[in-house]
Design goal:
Length: about 375
Amino acid sequence: MSIRGSISHHLFKGNKLMKLVLRWFPYGDDSVTLKQIKQIPGVTGVATHLTRIPVGDVWSMDEINLVKDEINSYGLEMEVIESLNIHEDIKKGLPSRDMLIDNYIESMRNLAKAGVKCICYNFMPVMDWYRSNLYMPLSDGSSAMAYSHSEASKLTLEAITTSMINGANDFSLPGWEPERFSQMAEDIQFYQNVSSEEYFKNIKYFLDAVVPVAEEVDINFAVHPDDPPFPLFNLPKVVNSKESIDKYLNLNTSKRNGLTLCTGSLGAGIHNDVVDIAKTFTSEGKVHFVHLRNVKHTSETDFHESAHLSSEGDLDMLAIVKTLYENGFDGYIRPDHGRMIWDEVGRPGYGLYDRALGATYINGLWEAVNKLCK
């Protein structure tokens, strides 16, 4: 069946709108400039993060406006924060969590005053994300981030942290801040005695505190899936399948408690039907942010990131975009991790060129689906 014939025309009344953004790191901590981002067709803003504020501290209006003013000066919006990170004591359910949640809520209120509409975050314990190879050579001469579960499972924590920092090209890596390293081993040991049920109780405690504030100040919360979806060091997995997403979102049923649909993180799990996941949670109004990227599996638990094009990986990007459109998605999309191409040097996954190609590809898919629906 053709795309035109397979789409229900009654779903569309005029053009569906989405906003295309690019992730950008402030304070001179990015090889990509706002001037360059502004020149990518269709990109309206950036998803950003105040990297110099320690996790758990309040994001002040002065600091927020400092970054926002710089972004706005290039004609770009700052409506998405990625990420307002959650302190480990909140995840552990320690007595200090109430003070830290109060700080988090104050930061939310300040961000809302600055016009932020969506906060992407994760609840992964200890490690935010991980790749066993930050620069895997590909056959076309580019390089991409890759993950081998068998290799990762053999590494010590020290070897993992060293490989991440050594491969960062002197840029910060979200979730891999050096000041956290001394605590990581102790944190991992702590979680060996925490059941999945206990951990989800801690998640619910957090959500029940912050989601009412999100409703009050008109901000959507969008949890990011575990990346990768495979367990390391016997740490709890939180969001790595359709079933776990459903469990997470039902901890607090407000529409504000939603999902960052990361096609690469979910697609890394060969068991996941990303199109079906997109359909299920977009139709419920729970997908607020989308990270679009492709992955190529070399085994059930090993993969490397690829160019965004469907033919370059294992995911059908047209089917994903079409499903988002069909089910009324009107949130934010960004091209996710790119390869390093054309001899570019930058933060792994976050160079300019391949993400700009990804943005153009996404624009093309969205325009095609939109026009075929008329």
